[in-house]
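User: Can you model how iron/sulfur cluster sits in this protein?
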Amino acid sequence: MATSTVHADRIREVHLLTRQGVGPLDIAARLGITDRTVHRLRAEPQPEPQPEPQPDPGERALCRKFPHVNFTPNRRKDATEAITVCSWCPVRRDCARLALTYYYAGGVWAGVWISDNHRPETRRQLAAVANGGDAR
Ligand code: SF4
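Assistant: Here's the modeled complex, given as structure tokens:
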């Protein structure tokens, strides 16, 4: 029987977090599953890799049109210009969905400065944008 997409995504998440050095108890807490499930998913073979996402959601991404703007600042205080560009971007919601799905880290995505995509506050902001709201 083919592995369901949801199940395959969960296996990928567990493997990804494990590679990032996150322990089973923390993985369980972040994904809302038991640590026993984490161990079971870890033991399953990784599903076929998904194609690498593009660094932006396509031709309409405004960051393509502002190459001089730094979208990968190391500090939040240097992210203001990029966040302003994102606020006008027509594909901002798709960008937030990509960032949520692939645990992007480092830089500005969808108007959210991401230092750690596993932080609940960061994910809450990205989810708000993905749902058509604001990052505040
Ligand atoms: S929301 Fe920002 S980072 Fe995302 S595609 Fe648009 S300009 Fe680029």
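A couple of observations from the model: The chain has two domains: 5-43, 62-130. DSSP finds six helices and two strands in the chain.
User: Helpful, thanks.
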